[in-house]
Amino acid sequence: MSELTQGVTVSADPGAGFGLAGKVAIVTGAASGIGRATAELLANAGAIVTAVDINPKGFAGLDLGKDGSTDTADLSVPAACDQVVESVIRRHGRLDILVNAAAILRRVAIKDVDAALWEQMMDTNLLSQFAMCRAAVRPMRKQRSGRVVVIASTAAFNGGADNSSVYAIGKGGALALAKSLARQVAADGITVNAVAPGGIDTPMGRFGFTEESWNAHYQKNVPLRRAGQPEEVARAILFLVSDWGSYVTGHTLDVEGGLMLR
């Protein structure tokens, strides 16, 4: 075994599990949608999950198992991101997984975007991911291991539907963040990947749609003829943060029912 592969364990048994038992994870945006589904799935796979969101009421009914916990924070403020990571390190002594799912969506045409809306969208959708990544990789580098997943969107590739331009711009920045960080921390044993969901059946995803227009949109534009479910995105994230995704970094995984056909 060379020095480059020393300490890397690859199981040949496809039934060996995902290797998440006892791993310490942070999942942001965990009060609803993709973040909530991911937090519960990782906890079910054995991870010790801290679920983070600005909305503590959304934590009601969240099942994180006996070792999981919640943290209320406004991640658009970088100092709050540092505090979330520091709190997890104090409790558990390490951090193995970060999933950045916190986001907001406002459908406004570019001509109508003012400075306040731009700042709110960019701080929540891009700055928070940058600040969480920066805080998380500090302990991961000391451990020489870690998994980071940035949540982007198909909007980053098609400019966004129904006046979601600012959202699309922020998600494009998230893709660049994932690729740049992946290159910088790969030698420290840390993988960084992006997941790009298409239309997912969440409160944010449905924002601005009537039931009729929602159904018509997917019937017309998505080969699978339906919206995705949050759990379907969570399964893709699970793969990337697990032992099964150990040789994947700097990658963008589309979860969009064939919308992009890339």
Poorly predicted spans: 1-5
> How many separate structural domains?
1
Question: What is the chains' assembly state?
Answer: single chain
Instruction: State the end-to-end distance.
Output: 37 Å
Structural class: alpha/beta
Give the helix tally. 7
Averaged pLDDT: 91
Bulk shape: globular
Strand content: 5-15%
CATH architecture: 3-Layer(aba) Sandwich
Order of neighbouring strands in the sheet with most strands: 3-2-1-4-5-6-7
Order of helices and strands: EHEEHEHEHHEHHE
State the name of the first-level CATH class.
Alpha Beta
What is the total tally of β strands? 7
Task: List strands and helices in order, with pairings.
Blueprint: E1 24-28, H1 33-44, E2 48-53, E3 69-72, H2 78-92, E4 97-100, H3 115-143, E5 146-151, H4 155-158, H5 165-185, E6 190-197, H6 211-221, H7 230-241, E7 252-255
Parallel strand pairs: 1-2, 1-4, 2-3, 4-5, 5-6, 6-7
Quick description:
This protein is an alpha/beta fold and about 260 residues long.
